[in-house]
Design goal:
five-stranded mixed sheet, 19% helix, 29% strand, 3 helices, alpha/beta, 159 residues
């Protein structure tokens, strides 16, 4: 059974949208369902999504899309050669989703990068702090409303 069909049969109430194009399956789900669905994707033998290939975010500020952000996960099953994209709409006022670090340890740095660049928090993350920008950096530079000419505080030498 294809992963998209499997998810649609079991989680129809949590799904907001699905689409497939040239074997590229995408499922948009509610944020509250992320942990349960992600765990099922990993632990169900006929799916076996054992590899989190990427985790990123998208800011739809200029498109005026609501909610403003989407957190995007790219999963792969080494055993079955399946790929799946999972998207979570995230509101700007409550920019937070559950961490997946406990399921895929590689999510740790991906989630830190999304926090650093977009300001989206990951509830339950073991060490959510900046990973690319320095600690005194103000704001989140991949947000579409971040001022490109903003001056940042200067950081002196570390003693």
């Amino acid at each position: 059974m294809k992963p998209l069909q499997w998810i649609q049969e079991r989680y129809s109430q949590e799904i907001l949208l699905t689409h497939s194009f040239r074997e590229d399956d995408t499922v948009v789900i509610q944020s509250s369902s992320l942990k349960n669905i992600a765990q099922a994707l990993k632990e169900t033998p006929e799916l076996d999504f054992n590899f989190l290939m990427d985790l990123t975010a998208v800011d739809y500020f200029h498109l005026k899309k609501m909610p403003r952000f989407e957190v995007v996960y790219h999963f792969y099953s080494l055993k079955w050669n399946h790929r799946l994209r999972l998207k979570i709409p995230v509101d700007e006022k409550n920019a937070e989703v559950d961490t997946l670090c406990d399921l895929w340890p590689s999510a740790n740095w991906y989630e830190r990068e999304v926090w650093d660049m977009f300001g989206i928090r990951f509830k339950g993350h073991p060490n959510l702090k900046r990973i690319l920008m320095y600690d005194e950096f103000k704001g989140h530079p991949l947000r579409k409303d971040y001022p490109f000419n903003k001056r940042q505080p200067l950081v002196g030498p570390v003693n």
